[in-house]
Amino acid sequence: MKYIMMMQFGVAGWKEGNITNWKPEEVKKNMDYLIALNNELVASGEMVQTEGLGGPETMKIVRAGSGKPVVTDGPFPESKEFLAGFWIVDVETAERAQEIAALISALPGPGGKPANLPIEVRPVMKHTGTEHTL
Fold this sequence. Notes:
single chain, about 130 residues
């Protein structure tokens, strides 16, 4: 079954201490960890796709308008977190998806300590042409 794992990052933390403020060795440790984890998921056949996303300063919120889309900067002012990236994996059990999410959450942050970022895990629905199922 496919699962999407969405990495949330704090808006305040992004503004105050985003990765551009990390020491070069902290960035390298973080990226090396993610590259190794992603390579393991590819080697195991569990990786479907992964992507990092631009920060909140690049976000746009789009709503249907009268004749043309209404576009505003995002995230919503009340947002405390934003979607920083995602993984889609194909695994046998929900427990395995949760194990992978915990590994992602443990990526090194400043000072090399585990970042402990929240990772939302959700099953991806199957589309059969006429219906959607889990």
